[in-house]
Amino acid sequence: MGVLLSLLSAAYYLPKLYFASVPATVAVRSATSSIAIERVSLRDFIRQRCPSLFKEFRPAWWLRSGHLQTAYCVVGDFSKIDKVEYDRKLLRTLDGGTIGIDLTPPAQERTLKEDTPIVVVLHGLTGGSHESYVRSILAPACTPVEQGGLGYRGIVVNFRGCAGVPVTSPQLYSALHTDDIRVAVMYISKMYPKAPLIGIGFSLGANVLTRYLAEEGEKSRLVAGCALACPWDLVASSDHLERHAFHRAVYSRGMAQNLKKVVARHLDALSKFPDSPAWKAVQVAAAKKSMSLVEFDEIVTRVCGGSSPPFPFPSAYDYYRAASSHKVLGNIRVPFLALNSRDDPIVNSFPVGVADNGWVVLGLTQGGGHLGWFEAGKRFGELERWIRKPVLEWLRAVGEDLVPESERGQPMHEVEGFLKEVGRDDIGCKEVEGGGHVVGVEGEGGLFAGL
Q1: pTM score
Q2: Residue 68, Cβ neighbours under 10 Å: how many?
């Protein structure tokens, strides 16, 4: 009986993987020869190269619930681990907005080969390159091979107004708007034309990444993607947060408070656009003492969370319906691994069976909360993030073994200083003055971290 219970317990903690009925086949370098190419199914590709996904994940016993896992993301001290430093560049978009890209390792630290794989990161709701969940992946991914890392380059795309990036236009960011990541990836691919680019997104950033890959299809400049704690169906997630008093009081209002503080830091900048809907919206939000996430999105995000069209939306729920990423999974045409936790208190809807797309693999763990996945470390009381194991295996597999088989993106050219795709004049970017050195553990004070 004891053996049976042990086996049942082990099976319970195994991640559940969902593959399409007919997985896509990918070209990979042979295990016996770096020159020989073979074709394998995405299912076999993951089985052979991501063994951690087939081993149990047991949350630390003192962080057993999703609430505790998520809370530790916020209150835990991660300042002494996973230290990452960056060089920052600022990119000006055609609408006058600014996004910040943080590159690691810094140029003065060491020089990498031109074809070194690059991990392109999209952070969560009000995060940035400083977030512990970002650093937990980039620190080992960008550590030199001789020191036990992958030896990759990492580039974090910081959304408008986040992580110290200035606001220079009356447009912010959202779960729907993908043009900022699109132009950032264009710029990165121009800087490093020989390097494979691998996307990874966290929470809201995972939603943006999913939508970008779906919109780009076979022309994606990213050779693969990984989505962690993606919210998928924003209508269902919002209903879940608003329906339960605890979730509304803690998570919904906590995230709205973060958004309010981000906007408050840029009120002076937004006041330079007095006739814009954005300025009117943020004034209303700033005047409110407390609000839920849906209330913030009703006042601000639906109005100025992206370019027009499709913004503004009639309501927050119209924006949620348009921004939900579960509906576009069928359009992805690069290897795509998405991992969620069943006890995530913020995300309660998972797209199992939504799209029978051979390029997409969905994994669900029993525990982990929202961007937590903390397990007991080797020493008593020590915590480690389990999620970094399968993610690093995935990054190594798609960065070194995967052989992309199609052209990545449309040709590019410069028009009046802006980098654009040939045949598309509505988006573009150019580097502007600013940026500098960024110390990764120095986050923005006053914000709940980890969300």
Answers
A1: 0.95
A2: 18
Beta strands in 105-214 (DSSP E): 118-122, 153-158, 197-202
Q: Which of 133, 80, 83, 203 is nearest to 450 (CA)?
A: 133
Provide the terminal-to-terminal Cα distance of the chain, rounded to the nearest Å: 42
Q: In the predicted model, is pLDDT for residue 118 greater than 50?
A: yes
Tell me which H or E stretch contains 337.
Answer: strand 336-341
Q: What are phi and psi of 337, to 5 degrees?
A: -115, 125
Query: What 3-state DSSP class applies to 56?
Result: coil
**In whole angstroms, what is the distance from residue 178 CA to residue 363 CA?**
24
Distance set, CA 439 to CA 90, 108, 442 (Å) = 16, 14, 6
> Has residue 288 got a pLDDT over 80?
yes
Residue among 332, 339, 342 at smallest CA distance from 52: 339
Place of tokens 């709940």: 448
Answer yes or no: are the C-beta atoms of 201 and 225 closer than 8 Å.
Answer: yes
What span, in angstroms and rounded, lies between the C-alpha atoms of 209 and 122?
Answer: 7
How far apart are alpha carbons 420 and 430 in whole angstroms?
9
Helix axes 388-396, 132-142, angle to 10 degrees: 40
pLDDT tier for residue 3 given thresholds of 50, 70 and 90: very low
